[in-house]
């Protein structure tokens, strides 16, 4: 069931929900992308009422700012209030994992479970991005020259999509299927909001330097599941400090998978998420 959510400042957010059970809100990555988590919803919709949404300025949502972490946290709260109810599980992927974490830190009473998928951690001193850049170029292999050539000039929308597909192909462990998986991510192509991407990425970097997220995570007394793909080109040690800071955390590494573990290890992903939700759900009233 597809419908819109209106934020308190009047921004229209595209949203969709499917399935039955307790609510689970998904937060896509980017920043600046649209929701590509339909396959996650299909894996889990017999176990939860899965709610997806396009973040402000992205995909099918209204293309307007402001683009800030605080604004996106407020938008997520609007989605939660309108579609999920007073308390929900939240699953975030990549940048969306950071958004979900920030939401849980700011509103722990509104989050029942937090699932942190392929995030990049909260350690400001041990930067992951140089390692990502090296790994990206290595994994692009025969596509590297074309990817660099497209990046060095102004591009048509079709070339934007082509470059994104090449870059996203490096997020998958199996080179034989990587471009096909990336093509599926880019279909339909809704365009990346570069202004949103730049603004949010810059704020995340600043936030990690000036805010003590480690201390705030130590006070986060709710169940957290971290899911990693060991073949992710973003180094997984970047998440170690987050894992250590969380008082109620478990971590699962899904063999044979990269940055989108539900694509390359769907059975392991579904088992990890559903086992976590089942084990950590509060008993129904009167039982």
TrEMBL record:
Keywords, ordered alphabetically: Hydrolase
Q: Which GO terms describe its molecular function?
A: hydrolase activity
Domain of life the protein comes from = Bacteria
- Official protein name in the record: Alpha/beta hydrolase
Q: Where is the AB hydrolase-1 domain?
A: 23-261
| Family affiliation | Belongs to the peptidase S33 family.
Q: What is a single Pfam family found in this protein's UniProt entry?
A: Abhydrolase_1
Instruction: Cite the InterPro entries for this sequence.
Output: AB_hydrolase_1 (IPR000073), AB_hydrolase_fold (IPR029058), AB_hydrolase_sf (IPR050266), Peptidase_S33 (IPR002410)
